[in-house]
Amino acid sequence: xxxxxxxxxxxxxxxxxxxxxxxxxxxxxxxxxxxxxxxxxxxxxxxxxxxxxxxxxxxxxxxxxxxxxxxxxxxxxxxxxxxxxxxxxxxxxxxxxxxxxxxxxxxxxxxxxxxxxxxxxxxxxxxxxxxxxxxxxxxxxxxxxxxxxxxxxxxxxxxxxxxxxxxxxxxxxxxxxxxxxxxxxxxxxxxxxxxxxxxxxxxxxxxxxxxxxxxxxxxxxxxxxxxxxxxxxxxxxxxxxxxxxxxxxxxxxxxxxxxxxxxxxxxxxxxxxxxxxx
Length: 278
Ligand SMILES: Cc1cc2nc3c(=O)[nH]c(=O)nc-3n(C[C@H](O)[C@H](O)[C@H](O)COP(=O)(O)OP(=O)(O)OC[C@H]3O[C@@H](n4cnc5c(N)ncnc54)[C@H](O)[C@@H]3O)c2cc1C
Ligand code: FES
Description:
Bound molecules: flavin-adenine dinucleotide, FE2/S2 (inorganic) cluster
Shape: globular
Number of domains: 2
Number of strands: 15
Structural class: alpha/beta
Strand order of the largest sheet: 10-9-8-7-11-12-15
Number of helices: 7
CATH class of the largest domain: Alpha Beta
CATH architecture of the largest domain: 3-Layer(aba) Sandwich
């Protein structure tokens, strides 16, 4: 796609209601002659007329192109406006931006995904990509485990997606902070699930969710013996340009939009990252 600041129009083909706060917007570029490719972990700048722009991770896999999914939680001006949209409406997108997850490093690894709430969106792209390549000798992960935490059963997003992953061999473990009378699954924080899982020299962990969750999970993973270079997370900073020029996402000498949003723990340890401070 053109990499200037002019957004390309995209049509909302379908809206998947994930829960009260989150919907997935299935988009297609209107001008199909514009070349567009990306890797899991990259994000788009999404624009809605009169509402400005916001950074949103691509939650579908590149293998699903020309479909581009954006899973969006109501947070403010633009995201609330998105939730008023209907199938057939148009939005603007520019990008993709940012460093993706190093997908080549995940071949033959035991992948452990730990997510909270909307944090599953960028990881979903990685899981779908890995499952697409699961029969390939050169690209397949050894195993995939997902630990996913939500506040309550009605807050669980991506329910049909996780059921589908389970059928494809992903070891999915869901937990809720507070159960209702119908909930049969685990109750407790996602940090309670982690110690029940093996971490070995072959584990690569990908963590995304609220900053406090990321902080505790990373500390647990380290204590369980996971290597710094095998722990990855994505950082959120308020973004304006997405291309390293406005300085809004500056963090200890790095621009999160260009140097991230994906970082390994080894990289984070060289930076002053407040929310991950012990
Ligand atoms: C790389 C990246 C990927 C993301 N991916 C997703 C995703 O997949 N799905 C998703 O739902 N969200 C995602 N986000 C978060 C999303 O970009 C923000 O929530 C965005 O602010 C929403 O825009 P808005 O106009 O709806 O909300 P805003 O009106 O921007 O308000 C949202 C919150 O940000 C605060 N805020 C507003 N302006 C500033 C400022 N200048 N500095 C600091 N805080 C401010 C507000 O007080 C409010 O609490 C991502 C963010 C990043 C950086
Ligand atoms: S968003 Fe402008 S420098 Fe990163």
